[in-house]
DNA sequence: CGGCAGAAGTTGTAGCATGCAACTGAAGAG
DNA sequence: CTCTTCAGTTGCATGCTACAACTTCTGCCG
């Protein structure tokens, strides 16, 4: 049985390896979208439409960066904006129909990738892993 | 008991969240080093001195990118290079004394971060998580 | 009411990482 | 010897990011 030090080192190493792979492989979940713009579109759906400031806060990015990324999304026809009726300074950002389609495709693609990768796993192992990851992310 | 679909979705979501956090938080593991340059120095140690081509292959980067990063490391006094005696085209890259010191600091810093984050975990939970992560990374 | 602080976004500027392509120098095959 | 291939560097372009200055609008306080 390995000691705690070694186990911690393994977890650290494996999570780092995962992060590196995620950045390089899943960096382009769609030809037109980077991981960040994809996540932004996703966040607009999850929140039911949000403002640029929300995105900046949630992803810890400068508002100028968000402004440029949303401009790109709009130029690609993947996002629409409407002035917030309650506060004319802000805008409500939502995916367009095409943006929603693209998001669904990307979701399905990623789901299939994970399903294939975890195909050989037993159900209870999957559930334990899911629980561990939730616990890890919620702490700290 | 959740179904397999839901469990897979959870794993996917949590790993994505982890990757996003890793990008923003662990982006700078040391004031002078980015995650990439840090990993490069680390790889030089693990391999006992390697060539730029090895780094490019291992990290899936263009050789020009590696060339510039190693130039930066050398300019910072963290790395030294010597012409490969067996092949005068290549160079053997190694951390300098200061590079090794800095690497040890960074290692310790990261180890402490993980230890703190996982402080409340039972040993067998840690070992199971480590095993799951190894299995996940080794497959696919 | 009128002015002023603060918030939401945009744009100018700069820095950094990265990739592709063209180039230099060296090793190895014929 | 010559030609090809490999290791590495450099020029150029691109994309993401931050900081700062500016615009427009809101909300508050005198």
Summarize the structure.
Chain A is mainly alpha-helical. Chain A has one domain: Arc Repressor Mutant, subunit A (Orthogonal Bundle), CATH 1.10.10.
Structural features, described:
Two copies of one chain form a homodimer. With 140 residues, the first copy, chain A, is mainly alpha-helical. Chain A has a single domain, classed as Winged helix-like DNA-binding domain superfamily/Winged helix DNA-binding domain (Arc Repressor Mutant, subunit A), CATH 1.10.10.10. Chain A contains six helices and two strands. Chain A has a two-stranded antiparallel ribbon with strand order 1-2. In chain A, helix 3 crosses helix 4. The longest helix of chain A is centred in the first third of the chain and has 22 residues. The first copy, chain A, is elongated. The relative contact order of chain A is 0.09. Chains A and B meet through helix 1, helix 5 and helix 6 of A and helix 1, helix 5 and helix 6 of B. The first copy, chain A, binds a DNA duplex (30 and 30 nucleotides) through helix 4.
Protein chains sharing the most extensive interface: A-B, 49 and 48 residues
Domain tally of chain A: 1
- The proportion of residues forming helix of chain A, as a percent range, comes to 55-70%
Identify the CATH class of chain A: Mainly Alpha
Number of helices of chain A: 6
Low-pLDDT runs of chain A? none
The secondary structure category of chain A is mainly alpha
The tally of strands of chain A reads 2
Distance, first to last CA of chain A? 27 Å
């Amino acid at each position: 049985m390995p000691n705690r030090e070694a186990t911690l080192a393994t977890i650290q190493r494996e999570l780092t390896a995962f992060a590196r792979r995620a950045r390089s492989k899943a960096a382009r979940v769609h030809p037109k979208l980077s991981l960040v713009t994809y996540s932004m579109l996703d966040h607009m759906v999850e929140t039911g439409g949000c403002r640029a400031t929300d995105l900046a806060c949630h992803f810890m990015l400068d508002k100028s960066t968000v402004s440029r990324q949303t401009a790109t999304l709009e130029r690609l026809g993947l996002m629409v904006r409407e002035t917030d009726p309650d506060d004319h300074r802000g805008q409500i950002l939502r995916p367009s129909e095409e943006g929603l389609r693209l998001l669904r495709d990307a979701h399905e693609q990623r789901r299939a990738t994970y399903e294939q990768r975890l195909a050989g796993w037993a159900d209870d192992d999957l559930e334990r892993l899911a629980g561990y990851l939730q616990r890890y992310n919620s702490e700290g």
